[in-house]
Design a protein that fits this description.
- The protein is 68% helix and 0% strand.
- It has 179 residues and is mainly α.
- It folds into two domains: 46 residues, no CATH class; 84 residues, no CATH class.
- Helix 4 crosses helix 5, helix 5 crosses helix 6 and helix 6 packs antiparallel against helix 7.
- The protein is extended and about 60 Å long.
């Protein structure tokens, strides 16, 4: 309900934010209000019913596809649970990986898997751990290799990532004074 209100009636929220944050020191308030305006502007796409239906259809299709992927991985690891359990595990893992984590969701993926598989369905810990550590690697390495291939194919190099001076993508704070 809150998102619907933001989509169709954004102006009161902007006015409230201007009153609350408008007097902040150092321009922080102005940046917060501008960030809110930008967010609310992006929500305008939800007013287009055709676009919204397409987004919902793609969302359901991708969640189902990923749920089937979980279910197939269950089969590979001898976890005898149905598609509903795979979809539930997928949802729990999705909430868990929203937490800060290392590359490839190391730690949070395992937490979500443990909560769903061992905590709810009683899957033995060694089996759950085998799934929880192997499944994300099945996606991490192919996606990383594909990304590296495309970066190489467009001429992007490690030097570009480090910056021309070799120190990394460092922004000189003197250049941003007054912004």
């Amino acid at each position: 309900m809150g998102l619907v209100t933001l989509v169709f009636f954004p102006e009161p929220f902007v006015r409230l934010a201007e009153r609350v944050f408008g007097r902040s020191a150092g321009g922080l308030g102005a940046r917060l209000v501008e960030g809110l305006r930008s967010f609310l502007s992006a929500l305008k796409v939800l007013r287009d019913s055709a676009l919204l239906l397409k987004a919902l259809a793609w969302s359901y299709a991708l969640w189902l596809w990923n749920g089937i992927s979980f279910w197939l991985a269950f089969k590979a690891f001898g976890i005898d649970l149905g598609l509903a359990a795979a979809m539930f595990t997928e949802a729990v893992v999705a909430f868990a990986v929203a937490l800060p984590a290392g590359p490839a969701f190391v730690g949070t993926f395992q937490l979500g898997s443990d909560l769903a598989l061992s905590g709810v369905y009683g899957v033995a810990e060694p089996t759950m751990l085998a799934f929880a550590f192997r499944y994300p690697l099945g996606g991490f390495f192919p996606v990383t290799m594909i990304g590296l291939y495309y970066a190489w194919s467009i001429g992007f190099s490690m030097r570009d990532m480090r910056g021309q001076d070799g120190r990394g993508l460092i922004v000189d704070s003197k250049e941003n004074v007054g912004e």
